[in-house]
Amino acid sequence: MWKPNQPGTSPSTPEPVRPTSPASPSFEAASTRPATAGTAASAAPSGDQATIGKSLVIKGELSGSESLYIDGKVEGAITLPGNRVTVGRNGQVAANIVAREVVVLGKVRGNVQASDRVDIRSEGSLTGDVIAARISIEDGAFFKGGIDIRKPGTAEPKPATPAEPVAINS
């Protein structure tokens, strides 16, 4: 608890607040987004997230080793296997996405493969097949496609073969 009349403090002359500003501009603060309720525990580490802004249009292949926030338009392929891809409210993606985690708040047309989870929020839209260990689709979200739930660490399934009858000895 703060007590105003402590020895060594003078209530009439408080220490001035000095704004701290870096010598060079910092872009790290601009790329971080405030976490919404329920995502604080799974948010990407600060500074490890790139951002594609509203006015940017990218055509081609995206790959890398950091998380990505997309608020613009992307056409092609997105491959970030160990990271999170977040399609923001203004984001429009026409691409296949391979990532650890995919969060959809905007529009995605293409197949999504996540080693951990896919999260389609209430204002999100995903048209395409999903392969993931976990999937969450909120009320109000749009989803059209197939879902393949796979346990973490499993490889591509073998082609289906007819099951052979098993003899049970009694």
Automatic annotation (TrEMBL):
<protein>
    <submittedName>
        <fullName>Cytoskeletal protein CcmA (Bactofilin family)</fullName>
    </submittedName>
</protein>
<feature type="compositionally biased region" description="Low complexity">
    <location>
        <begin position="154"/>
        <end position="170"/>
    </location>
</feature>
<comment type="similarity">
    <text>Belongs to the bactofilin family.</text>
</comment>
<feature type="region of interest" description="Disordered">
    <location>
        <begin position="148"/>
        <end position="170"/>
    </location>
</feature>
<feature type="compositionally biased region" description="Low complexity">
    <location>
        <begin position="29"/>
        <end position="47"/>
    </location>
</feature>
<dbReference type="Pfam" id="PF04519">
    <property type="entry name" value="Bactofilin"/>
</dbReference>
<dbReference type="InterPro" id="IPR007607">
    <property type="entry name" value="BacA/B"/>
</dbReference>
<feature type="compositionally biased region" description="Polar residues">
    <location>
        <begin position="1"/>
        <end position="12"/>
    </location>
</feature>
<feature type="region of interest" description="Disordered">
    <location>
        <begin position="1"/>
        <end position="47"/>
    </location>
</feature>
